[in-house]
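Researcher: Re-running this chain for the archive, since the previous output was lost when a drive failed. Same request as before.
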Amino acid sequence: MSLSALQKARYGYAPKLPSVLKNPPAEIAIEFGKPTSAISDREELQKVFARTYGKPMACFKKGANPNARKKLKVGVVLSGGQAPGGHNVIAGLFDGLKKGSTDSVLYGFLGGPSGLINCQYKEITAALVDEYRNTGGFDIIGSGRTKIETDGQVASSIETVKKLGLDAVVVIGGDDSNTNAALLAEHFIQKGLKTQVIGVPKTIDGDLKNEYVETSFGFDTAAKTYSELVGNIERDANSARKYWHFIKLMGRSASHIALECALQTQPNICLISEEVEAKEMTLDQVTEDICAVIAKRAEKGENFGVILIPEGLVEFIPEIKSLIHELNDEMAKKAAEFNALAGFADKKAWLQKNLSAPAYAAFASLPESIAGQFLADRDPHGNVQVSRIETEKLLALAVEQKLAEMKKAGTYKGTFSSYTHFFGYEGRCAFPSNFDADYCYSLGFTAFLLTAGGVTGYLSSVQNLTAPADQWTAGGIPLTMMMNMEKRHGAQKPVIKKALVELEGKPFKAFASQRDDWAVNTSYVFPGAIQYFGPPEVCGQPSKTIQLEHT
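Model: Regenerated structure tokens:
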């Protein structure tokens, strides 16, 4: 493997740990709190998770834990999209296992959950893990989006853990992946297996969090990477002074990344999906608001600017949200019939017969190039793949049309030229920031301790993250307490509820208090590249979101 100078240097970085985790594993005791309950739909969830529902919170304190010296066999799965720091979770898990007992073994399942189903794995050795410490990506074992849902998939997974004699499976993933982990824990107990299941909170979208999960890993690095790119474009816009840049940012269901990037870069406009939904703003109203800012800046002779757009915005615009819901339901119910249709015209005619009049009107109002994206291959849940909808181009086209109308009416006298961008994959495998390198390593070590503690159906949790790392606390939270019931594939399913941007939360309020000024006055901030060496204020700060949440 060819190595860059930075990669060589990162190998030498020693991730920081909470003080309690620096003790020998046999001197770290697990303590339990009171029983927990789900956030909603408690009766239904208790039926689904008859053996794992209501477990207590867990935390680690200095004390005796002789079980930590036991030889353990553990399998690890990287599930879903990549997020910076995944390799450090595996490194922390591996180091913890070996500190407990040098005879412990860690297996990595290849290609995500399908590796567990198909018993495709390799042993994680010291030599292997040392090649990936503090680096981005999931390439140590690969990832995948297979869901362990069918009876056959569950049965195959059970055969795998039996064959390998696993004491635990650690699932590193987002809300859907950890919902799968909770179900797997239930299945294993039901079948009389000793194998525990432990989850680790991963997603750059930042929507897997709550009171006990302060952030999902990868968010910090991804948001900083995107903010560097946004800052670069802001500087270019301020130099050329003739383009409006429409930048879509990852964030399928929540706008945390867009909000964090706005706090870091101070763009002219940042749309927040949750606010659009709360105000029930139509696509036309969103367009009018953007045009109003463009017109104000044109009056100052500033015919340029930067607009940040969350990836999932269209799902929060009422008429588009209704359209998507109807598409998901009708195309699921009549999948074979719809899939037999050849061209766009035939599909459009089918939709006119099968959708409500308002939903079809919304579909018909879209440019054909965008409308076709609503009909593309479905995601693993059978839903519209929102990430494939070029919302940035949709808005740029709508704004251009509206500005032309305003020009004819004499209410706009500027010039308008646009560029569109989508920043997504650029941030998913970046070298993890020092924060994510430390946080992920701690999450992995905590996953080992939860395994040694004999629990199952728990999510690794590290808290107090705005303090220095030695003041962080470690423990685990029951996965069922994060769940509710949602409609998937036309049926009610248990899922971990996504954490959306809170409009009454401190991060949004900080943004809202300044955005009117940023809209008209060029107030760009250029964060620059992630720094790994230097004073803590340069290379050790967590995201602005988490800092504001802790003020």
